[in-house]
Amino acid sequence: MHASQGKSAGLGLALVSAFAFGGSGVAAKPLIEAGLDPLHVVWLRVAGAALVMLPVAWRHRDLVRRKPALLAGFGLLAVAGVQGFYFASISRIPVGVALLIEYLAPALVLGWVRFVQRRPVTRRAALGVVLAVGGLACVVQVWSGLGFDLLGLLLAVAAACCQVGYFVLSDQGSDEAEQADPIGVIAYGLLVGALVLTVIARPWEMDATVLGGTADLNGTGVPAWLLLGWIVLIATVLAYATGVVSVRRLSPQVAGVVACLEAVIATVLAWVLLGEHLAPPQIIGGAVVLVGAFIAQSATPKAPTGVVAGSAEGTAQANAAGERRLSVERSAN
Predict the structure, then answer these.
(1) Whole-angstrom Cα distance, residue 101 to residue 104?
(2) pLDDT of 186 strictly over 80
(3) Which of 84, 149, 190, 235 is surrounded by the most beta carbons within 10 Å?
(4) What CA–CA distance (Å, rounded) separates 136 from 289?
(5) Helices (H), 112-251
(6) How far apart (Å, rounded) are the C-alpha atoms in residues 78 and 81?
């Protein structure tokens, strides 16, 4: 009975996390269109969330000594890299398309494992990659010569590459007896990301008057500070926290299925709130991308043969590794 209740609660938390992450781009794009530079929006998001998570960072201050490389990698890649490139991409291409491109991360991880580490992968994982790439071709409409801004597409791919960098890093030491607490890693990752973005974004050059005005949400004026509050408190702090707790109550594989809803939620919200309509072939292609990403994520090794799955978990060696992966898998969000 208690186990069933725990799973139900975990599923609810996973849905909350997917919704929160999925709404980040929808809230950020009006701020960008109102005059804020994408990097300034990212800095506001990360710095604000870092301040909220300071008590958590203090509680896990031993991580600075135990896992400095992991914290630096999280901050540089999963926070500064992913979110910076993602927000830059949505300033040029639709939110749903940018997020779907990020679901190429499992395919890119597979390529890293197969061609860089030179390790065999399962056929199921390879099938997932083929489906994801084929679906993406429909989303970007390759038959019409790429109907979207090429730079915007490249920025979204860069965000996916940053995710891969963290996935590879997070797999290091996943079999250790004393593993890093994922919430503590998130807190320090946000702090590191805020420091890095402060140097890159130069927030002192930001047009802060935009935050005192309104932003256009598909014809409706919305206070800019309200959108920023959503990005910091809901799309970052709440999204990360509920995502991590949900994985502790569910298996990483089940939580990964729910995570795929983030792209659907982001696309629907962008359709309703921003008027970003996708053509039928793009919708079908998006569904294929999600199916392929799920197959690649859920593929597991065949016993102790050394064959690895091409998943965003890296090697799926332990649930703890999956927990850390899922906590950042949707950071572009």
Answers:
(1) 6
(2) yes
(3) 190
(4) 6
(5) 123-139, 150-170, 182-201, 224-229, 239-249
(6) 6
Give, in order, the Cα–Cα distances in Å from 27 to each of 88, 207, 269, 288.
14, 18, 10, 26
Q: Which amino acid is at 278?
A: L
Q: What is the CA 259 to chain-centroid distance, rounded?
A: 9
Q: How confident is the model at residue 232 (pLDDT cuts 50, 70, 90)?
A: very high
What secondary structure, in 3-state letters, does 177-205 show?
CCCCCHHHHHHHHHHHHHHHHHHHHCHHH
Determine the 3-state secondary structure of 121 from DSSP. Answer: strand
Residues 34, 215 contacting (CB under 8 angstroms): yes
Q: Phi and psi at residue 6, in whole multiples of 5°? A: -65, -40
Alpha carbons within 13 A on the beta-carbon side of 6:
9
pLDDT of 212 above 60: yes
Kindly state the helix (H) or strand (E) to which residue 59 belongs, with its residue range.
helix 54-59
What's the angle, vertex CA 64, arms to CA 203 and CA 186, rounded to 5? 60
**pLDDT tens-digit map of 15-26:** 888 888 888 889
Q: Are 26 and 95 in contact (CB under 8 A)?
A: yes
Q: What is the mean pLDDT of the chain?
A: 77
**Reported pTM:** 0.74
